[in-house]
Amino acid sequence: MTSDAALITSLQAGDADAFETLVRKYMPALLRVARRFLRSEDDARDAVQDAFISAFKSIRNFASNSQLGTWLHRIVVNSSLMKLRSQKRRPEEDIESLLPKFLEDGHQVIPSNPWNENAEAMLQRKELRELVRESIDKLPETYRTVLLLRDIEELSTEETARLLDINTNTVKVRLHRARQALRAILDPHMRGVA
Amino acid sequence: MNCREFISFLVEYLDGELAVSVLAEFEEHLSECESCTAYLASYRETILAARLVSNESLLNEAPEELIQAVLRSRI
User: Closest-CA residue in chain B for A52?
Assistant: First the structure.
């Protein structure tokens, strides 16, 4: 396997074989990212193609002290977000009912109870895996996008805010609401009372 | 700090961004409140579940036709 440093040198010299090596090496990872954001396979593939075209155009300006994988990851996140923005908005479900309710004194109306299962154990159960996947998919788009960027792609609040052109406080609010909604959906299943 | 305030600080807490003075109150509440202890633990597991499922569910492949389309687009 060609090291990234040698690959970058060859790419910047315009070596055609190097471009093929780059595409073959990073395509699976980039496609995985695009599929997380975009529900249609065609859209995910378009986003990956756009990402590579964008990378080809700017490879000469790539700083060799950066990580190639990280750089490409950001590019495909961007192209996926652009694709999402160009799509018609889907009807959204209100998540207000999934957020915790509080009494006047600040206590939860319904106190929380410990879960009997953890996430690792949950993964062994097909119906729960499907529930998590469907629940993320059903989140309002503005919440789903923030959850994907912060919790799945593991970008910072600042970078998420910059990519979505919103302020950091809005990122935190949306992330918190998305996590709380997911938690509420999982709660009865993880406590074994569903 | 009450439960409403505690829960409102979870994003900053998990990002390690709580101011020292708020962190002390947060941890004091955590040590006293079983409901918030359960909520924090389940909130963490929710994040992990979302991450595990999102990473597990996708094929690790590179369709040859897409590779060829990308390489053609460079010309």
Answer: B70
Q: Which residues contact B47 (CB under 8 A, 6 or more apart)?
A: A151, A179, B14
Interface test with A, best of B15, B18, B42, B56 (most A CBs within 10 A): B42
pLDDT at B61: 80
- Ordered by start, the domain boundaries in chain A are 4-86, 95-190
Place of tokens 């359960």: B38
User: DSSP string of A123-161?
Assistant: TT-HHHHHHHHHHHHHS-HHHHHHHIIIIIS---HHHHH
What ipTM did this prediction achieve? 0.91
pLDDT per residue as tens digits for the range A147-178: 999 999 999 999 999 999 999 999 999 999 99
Q: Which residues in chain A show pLDDT less than 70?
A: 1-2, 64
Pair of tokens at residue B40: 């924090």
Q: How far apart are CA A98 and CA A107, in angstroms?
A: 17
Select from B41, B49, B67 the Cβ nearest to the Cβ of A27.
B67
CATH fold label, A95-190 = Arc Repressor Mutant, subunit A (1.10.10)
Measured over all CA atoms, what is the biggest interatomic distance in chain B, rounded to whole angstroms?
65
pTM equals 0.90
Low-confidence ranges of chain B (pLDDT < 70): 57-60, 75
Question: pLDDT at position A61, please?
Answer: 84
CATH class of domain segment(s) A4-86: mainly alpha
